[in-house]
Structure formats: structure tokens, C-alpha cells
Amino acid sequence: MRNPGLAVDYEVEEDYPKFGNNDERADTITAKVLSDFMNNIRKNKTYRQATLLSPFNHHFQRGIWEKDCITDGVKQKLALVQPMPDEYKVLLLWFYANT
Questions:
Q1: Buried b (16+ CB within 10 A) or exposed e, 1-26
Q2: What one-character DSSP code corresponds to residue 85?
Q3: Where is the PFL domain (predicted)?
Q4: Gap between the Cα atoms of 54 and 48, Å rounded
Q5: With 0-12 CB in 10 A as exposed, 13-18 as middle and 19+ as buried, what is 77?
């Protein structure tokens, strides 16, 4: 619905999965996308036989990743702010659509 040159509202024409609102369809889609993504990643060799973890662990859900760093010879923990969660959703959906 529009006023002259201005979008003021929208109409929902069909039912759709509501991400983030405990919709079972959205949860199923998300689980499938993540599962397929991780299975495709696991097909590749990792550096020094590293173990792959889910990109959606509790650190990423909070948007903070702690990393051990050495600065001036002193081991410190630095909190790095990660762009979450929309960027990862877009990446996973793109990856799923293109595989």
C-alpha cells in the first residue's frame, strides 16, 4: 500500500516461517541449512587437523568471541566483537541456495 511515493504499510499474502518466533518450520529450515553447510565444510581438510565446531555456539550467539593473544610477551584474553547474527544467516542461506 502506498501514498504518493511513500511506502506506509505492507500486506502479507501467504503464510511464511517466522524466524525467531518459535516457528517449527523456521527451526527445521535453519537446522537443515546449518547441517548441510557444516557437512560441506567437513569435506575439506583442516589446518593441522583442527576440529570443526558449529558456527552457532554460545560465543557467537552473544556476539563475542574470546581469543588468546600474546601482546608484549604477556598472554591476554581479548574480546572481539563479531558481526552477528544476520551476516551469518545471509551467508548460510546463500551457501545453501548455491550448493
A1: eeeeeeeeeeeeeeeeeeeeeeeeee
A2: S
A3: 1-89
A4: 18
A5: exposed
Using alpha carbons, list the distances in angstroms from residue 67 to 51, 55, 70.
16, 15, 10
DSSP assignment of 5-72? TEE------S----TTTT-HHHHHHHHHHHHHHHHHHHTSPPGGGPPP--TTSHHHHHTEEEEEEEET
Structural domain boundaries in the chain: 2-97
**Structure confidence by residue, pLDDT tens digits, 5-21:** 777 777 888 887 777 66
Q: Is the backbone peptide bond immediately before 17 cis, with ω within 30 degrees of 0?
A: no
Q: What sign does the dihedral 56-86-46-32 (CA atoms) show?
A: positive
pLDDT cut 90: percent of the chain above it: 0
Cα 48-50-55 angle, rounded to 5 deg: 145
- Tens-place pLDDT, residues 20-31: 667 788 778 877
